[in-house]
Design a protein that fits this description.
6-stranded antiparallel sheet; alpha+beta; 2 helices; 101 residues
Length: 101
Amino acid sequence: MGYKFQMQDAERAKEVRTAAQELFDKYRPANRYELGITLPPEHCPSPIRNMQPNWIGISHDRVHIEFGNGFEHHGLNCFPNGVVGEGDAKIIDGLWFVSER
């Protein structure tokens, strides 16, 4: 598919999901009216950083790990513990692949 990441197994997906939860717990805006933040990959836990994303966005309801660019957005949406989430393809509960395609 040409993407910089692959979820080879459930264990790796769980590691990414756990790392995203750490970011969510640390940086989550208090409510949906507050602006989220964008982090460079080097400020993220290694399971996310090692996937070589372009950027990571943290909003009130999810962590988005972006691999695309201005013409082809694709990445992962990671939802807080207990939220199944949504996207184009479910990887595990709380972790979804999303794409503009």
